[in-house]
Amino acid sequence: MQIEDIKSPVDYLIYSKNEIHGYSRAIGKLFDLSTSYISDAEKAYKEGKKVIWSRTNGWEVPLAYSCGIIPVAFSEMGRLSDFETMRIGEEYYQFPPETCSMVKCTVGQWHKRKSKSINRILGAGVACEPFNLALELMKQAGYDVHTVDVIYRAPGMKGDELENLVEFFIRQIYDTVEWLTGSRKIDEDKLKQEIQRKNQLISKVRKILELRIGNPFYMRSLPAIFLLTGLNAGYFGKPEEYEKVLDLLIEELENAPVNEEDLKRVIPLVWVGNAGQEFGVFEVIDQADGALLGFRGYPFNICREDIPPVEALARHVLGNQDAGASVYVQQVLEKEAQKVNARGLILYGYLGCSYSTIAREMWGDHFRKQGIPSINLEGTFQIGPPSGQILTRIKAFTEMLA
């Protein structure tokens, strides 16, 4: 397959796996885990295993696995959508056309799978109002939905205020376990094991990202996105296989020869935001010698292992960059930009997502004052080629940095 033959994200995955990364068994296996994720999870459900739809936030993953349940990121199911699926959200569920395409795609997929697939959804009110509405609509459609109350840690919150919030979220964890299992009893030994597994996988992903800085073109932009997606999205439903991929990728990167010319010509970039279906964006970045070496989704904190596991999970949530105020994300971006010596930031969000628009403007302004340029892009979530305008802007931005 040649780049000219690419018509869809699936085509691009095949192209990236075979033509760009044909030398890497690890990256090939990473793509395979991603492409089989949803179908294998639904197969496991039909075989009688306990499976739920969940977010890609992270805290749900060790909790669900400790209960013997496979958490499946519903955003990855939404990625299978096309315009017809999105139209279900607009016409059947009456979402306005300007609503975020990710919400409409996910709702459309749930609608098509109703009574045929995984029928339990774990959501959280911290997501956004359109998604809150989507969860309510899915309840009415017959899904078993549990929504965790909003968790928001304001800037500077500490002391008694923070401790009260920790206690509040601990109660939310027990409520969630009761929904998952029918009992409020938590197997703390299993939860601790899952927290240890999560921490171990985080350390390996960090190692890979550090190795990429010294060999930026061995693993290009798209598989780097999938690396982090796997960490947050329940390890693609296959924790052991995902860890084997990480181990193999570390081995490959540690032994791969480094081209000194690559280090001279590479343009280090920080990717800020979501990863849509417009994989051509990543191809343009790569062709212009750009490399996504820093990420908003960098796993900068781990769960503590020196305190009871339920408390550790709560404190991890409230110490995470998604705990509430956008300033927490900004702090991560500052560290990432400094670590990779970034020459620019790519701020990417979905059309109609008011939730992230203001934050992206704030981050862009903050880094402009520090002398680091950025580009603010809005793309789509459903399957389809990226617009020519987005590709032109990305190319111009990357060439400007060169």
TrEMBL record:
Pfam families: HGD-D. Its cofactor is [4Fe-4S] cluster. InterPro entries: FldB/FldC_alpha/beta (IPR010327). GO terms for molecular function: hydro-lyase activity. Belongs to the FldB/FldC dehydratase alpha/beta subunit family. This is 2-hydroxyglutaryl-CoA dehydratase, D-component.
